TrEMBL record:
Belongs to the class-I aminoacyl-tRNA synthetase family. GluQ subfamily. Its cofactor is Zn(2+). Zn(2+) binds at C112, C114, Y135, C139. Gene3D superfamilies: HUPs (3.40.50.620). Binds 1 zinc ion per subunit. InterPro entries: Glu-Q_tRNA(Asp)_Synthase (IPR022380), Glu/Gln-tRNA-synth (IPR000924), Glu/Gln-tRNA-synth_Ib_cat-dom (IPR020058), GluQ/Sye (IPR049940), Rossmann-like_a/b/a_fold (IPR014729). This is Glutamyl-Q tRNA(Asp) synthetase. It is an enzyme of class 6 (ligase). HAMAP family: Glu_Q_tRNA_synth.
Amino acid sequence: MGSQGKRPASSQAEQGYIGRFAPSPTGMLHAGSLVAALASWLDARAHQGQWRVRMEDVDTPRCVPGADQAILQQLALCHLVPDGPVLWQSQRGLDYQTALDTLIAQGWAYPCACSRKDIESAQTQSVLRHHAAVYPGTCRDGLGGKTARAWRLNVQAVQAAFHLPRITPWQDRRLGGQEQDVLEAVGDFVLRRADGLWAYQLAVVVDDAAQGISHVVRGEDLADNTARQMLLQRALDVPTPHYLHTALVLGTNGEKLSKQNGAQALDLQDPLHALRQAASALNLPVREEVTDIDAQLAQWTDLWRAQHAPRVPFKA
């Protein structure tokens, strides 16, 4: 990771396809997370690439002991086996600190003394995003004698250093053209939290780079994170993957199916049945006469390749 040096001339396509599935071990996989796992696995196989698994256990207080191994067992029952060793975020604190030190050295990260209440009080109007106030940049020019609690990315400084537009555009392989004004949507976002834990945005960017991830396939609810991650990728001089955000699996209440909303753990007494339900959510046809998991996965891979793979294949 450098400062403002040029990136290697070779493209991600020339380096080969590496995808990933990155569950949080706060519980077992549910129907929605199997959809994300299957989509990322199919995309990797359709590109004749590699598929990695990363345990996003950086938020250690929320993680359930043993859930990581249980998730790996669930994936294995579905014949979704990673290529290469599994990575645990909880073991990568030194790498995240190195990235933060790089940003601080360039003047692109600063300490913040604000509590959540301070941020909400600083708003002149009700500017809320996912029930959280947009950070107004209170500590961007100093702490004012207060004690630092967290570290934030100076979005304006990064954009200025690389002559980036205020609005960050990107192309999603399913959603098409997207854009976000990060300062207006979230403000200078957290890199290390007040409780000392590493923020998701920094961890995922550092880990995608370390694992050589060329393609990210994940749920549409995470599309909102893409612009922030792209800014961090530029600041840390690492490649930006290709993104594809899948449609969400909704619960009976119309909200995203998730552990927080009481989603039940997958019933894998019949793994093929669970995979068929996940495939249906991805608009892939189910053939009841196919009773072998590997044969069914192979058929879905062919269909996925026809729907999502580029006309010019990526080199392995």
